[in-house]
Every structure is written in structure tokens, then in C-alpha cells.
Automatic annotation (TrEMBL):
It comes from Blautia obeum. GO terms for molecular function: DNA binding. This is OmpR/PhoB-type domain-containing protein. One of its GO terms (biological process) is regulation of DNA-templated transcription.
Length: 137
């Protein structure tokens, strides 16, 4: 269950985000904004030490940016689209319009990059399927 808060300006929102991170570092929250057509749009999600900014295509772990390729970003967004689903390499290849072999290389590189730079595993492989897991370490 969540609460929806409205802020008059960006400064108020930034202060609220900092308070949330400081008081409850393990909390997960989604930062929303209204676009020009007054439609709510996800701008960023925060969970544990992670911040993922959709518009800028950036992943931050404990304030440090994790650099990934555009195709790896597309794969990450696919996996994050539904945290209750897992995807096979064939499904990932189809969704990203790549070959199966190429998709496998990019997924494995994504797993390796995240693991090496964060010692955390937000993308996990289980029985030849890949899924996004919200780790709040």
C-alpha cells in the first residue's frame, strides 16, 4: 500500500526524498511527475541503495552510476516491467529485436556488470529465465 504526495515545486520534493532516504533507507518509492498532458509518469524509483532514473537511462547504486549499454538498458526495463514475471532469452531477444545469441551475451554482461560494481543482484537467473528482483540491501 502506498501514499500519493503532491508537491508545489521540485525543491519540496527533493527535501521529501532526502528525508525518506535518511529515515527509511530500506524503503521503496517511485517518483512521479506530470507530463504536459497531465499524465502521471514514472521518473525514478528508489529501493535500498538503488536509484533508477528512466528518462536519463541511469542506474545508481549508493550514489555511484552503473554504466550499461542502451540494449542492456532496454533489457533492464523489460525485466522491470513486471516484477512477478521472468523472461527467457528467446522472449528477451524478441522484445529487444535482437538475435538469441546476441541477447544472451547482453544479458550475461548486464548480470556481470551489476554484480561486479555493486555486489548485488537485481537481475537474477533461475532455470534459464531472468527476472528483476528488488533488493533493499
Amino acid at each position: 500500500m502506498g501514499e500519493l504526495l503532491y508537491f508545489k515545486n521540485c525543491e519540496e520534493r527533493k527535501k521529501a526524498e532526502e528525508l525518506l532516504k535518511k529515515c527509511w533507507p530500506e524503503v521503496s518509492f517511485v517518483v512521479m511527475r506530470l507530463d504536459m498532458q497531465n499524465i502521471l509518469e514514472e521518473e525514478r524509483i528508489h529501493f535500498g541503495k538503488w536509484d533508477i532514473e528512466f528518462e536519463k537511462k541511469r542506474m545508481l547504486y549508493d550514489g555511484t552510476e552503473i554504466v550499461i549499454t542502451d540494449l542492456q538498458w532496454d533489457i533492464l526495463q523489460l525485466l522491470m516491467s513486471d516484477t512477478e514475471l521472468s523472461f527467457s532469452i528467446k522472449e528477451i531477444a524478441y522484445a529487444t529485436n535482437t538475435g538469441v545469441h546476441e541477447a544472451k551475451i547482453y544479458v550475461e554482461d548486464l548480470l556481470k556488470t551489476i554484480k561486479e560494481q555493486t555486489d548485488s543482484a537485481i537481475v537474477q537467473k533461475k532455470e534459464e529465465r531472468y527476472a528483476f528482483v528488488e533488493i533493499t540491501d
